[in-house]
Known about the structure:
Elements: E1 2-3, E2 13-16, H1 23-34, E3 37-40, H2 41-49, H3 53-74, E4 81-84, H4 93-102, E5 104-109, H5 112-118, H6 135-149, E6 152-155, H7 161-173
Parallel strand pairs: 2-4, 2-5, 3-4, 5-6
Antiparallel strand pairs: 1-6
Helix pairs in contact: 1-7, 2-3, 3-4
Amino acid sequence: MHTNKTNAGRDNITLIGMPGAGKSTVGVVLAKVLGYRFLDSDLQIQEQTKKRLYELIGEYGDEGFLKIENEVNAGICACRTVIATGGSAVYGRQAMEHLRDISTVIYLKLSCKALEERLGDLQERGVVMGSGSTLSELMDERCPLYEKYAHLTVDAERMDIRGIVDAILLQLHG
Length: 174
């Protein structure tokens, strides 16, 4: 585990990381443990646009989807909430600066091998990924952004959900 600058006192937690890292699952459990609300930003996008992620990507392309994602995430208003973002949220500078301002941002880090074992069809999951790109190339592109925006990093490689939640709580509360 590695710590950047922590933002103690913020009453929201934002989880970032690759698709399949467990952001939504961990987020729900973490919210229950803390007595917080849970917000899945992908579901927020779908609710606001009335379309599924893969439909938005199909209709507007990757760039158009990223613009929508950035706008929705930059507009999140929350209090005592665990926010799980989509894996591509880190491409939205405005959104990530907003999330860093209103929350402690935690990067759930996993190896490419662990992610490959967890992920199914990336297109069906609504993953923004250039055609012909590999998961490894996508990680090479995104991981520096996750590290840039994270206040805290949890290496979730050999942990179950409870272990990840405990690691987050340990980093947040010492």
